[in-house]
Amino acid sequence: xxxxxxxxxxxxxxxxxxxxxxxxxxxxxxxxxxxxxxxxxxxxxxxxxxxxxxxxxxxxxxxxxxxxxxxxxxxxxxxxxxxxxxxxxxxxxxxxxxxxxxxxxxxxxxxxxxxxxxxxxxxxxxxxxxxxxxxxxxxxxxxxxxxxxxxxxxxxxxxxxxxxxxxxxxxxxxxxxxxxxxxxxxxxxxxxxxxxxxxxxxxx
Length: 204
What we know:
Blueprint: H1 2-14, E1 41-50, H2 59-65, E2 77-87, E3 92-104, E4 113-118, E5 121-137, E6 149-161, E7 164-172, E8 177-188, E9 191-203
Antiparallel strand pairs: 1-2, 2-3, 3-5, 4-7, 5-6, 6-9, 7-8
């Protein structure tokens, strides 16, 4: 009974509430309370890159500084992102995001094992889908077409990283050598998480 009552109250609050995004603004990657106009569609695409020539915040150098075993192009990052926002009504927007990225990892020569194969990157995928629902909008229009607006946003997300595999047929210790009859794989796997979140947004 309570969920039905809450939905009824939200519907009553939003019957005449249209918190359209101010002229010239976009909703992609913008945590404001404004929603898209009815039928308005925003699509954005971006490319990510960090390498020896592109590293404005010195993130790659910090990556190297914290692990002296890393060599070559370790720390190079490449990927892309897509964002879509669609106005279902004047007070309800649905959105979806997809991001894929790959981080290069070069461990150099591994003297403690006879390595037959090793992955050279960590590949991750981020997915998100959700909505933004306007609960209140003031009647006062600011000089830059903004209105005081209160909205609630809900979203579900999933983050997943592909397995990172190392294949060896021998392990070498200080006083012990271990031979494997068949090549053996060691993996960093199941690095996944998913969930949902809600929050309120107020723009003024």
